[in-house]
Specification:
Elements lengths: L11 H44 L4 H11 L5 H13 L7 H11 L2 H10 L5 H10 L3 H13 L6 H6 L19
Amino acid sequence: MNNQLNNNELTEPQVADQENDQKNKQQEVIKQAAIEKRREHLKNESTRIIDIAGNEPNSALKCIHQLSVAGGDQDTAGAYHLALMAQNTPDLPIDARQLIELVVNRGDNDQRLALLKNLPLPPVELIKGQILASDDGDAIGQMNAYLQINPEGYGSQHMLGSGHADRIVPLSPGNNMNTD
């Protein structure tokens, strides 16, 4: 037998290396295909979410879309919901102060009262000033009643934790912010 190998013949380790290289290439192709499939799925989901954001008035999703894509937002109900979400989710890339100011300055008194009652530390004086400037007797009465039992304006979480039976109803279009 000839112990010498022809140039065309490979040793067992060389064959194994080639097979491993082929397997690695196949695995890389499979990984890239999976990444492309995920990208396509995310692209489709993004399109669907943007469509929802564009068609759902008064939603936090629309507000996020307006803030991040359209460069601004005048949807005070969406801003209200997003501000509450931002207060409870520390890693959202959103400035809650901007949202709160939008609601206080451009929202209605129901939204202002909801902020007063639902934010952990609402801007009491700013909200109070806007409600008083509106000359809305009902809203002023609700605000005064709330501030009488909670002069610091610590929000409903503090009230509930302190044993008060006051339950704050979430803001919804057409609903007022009465307490139970």
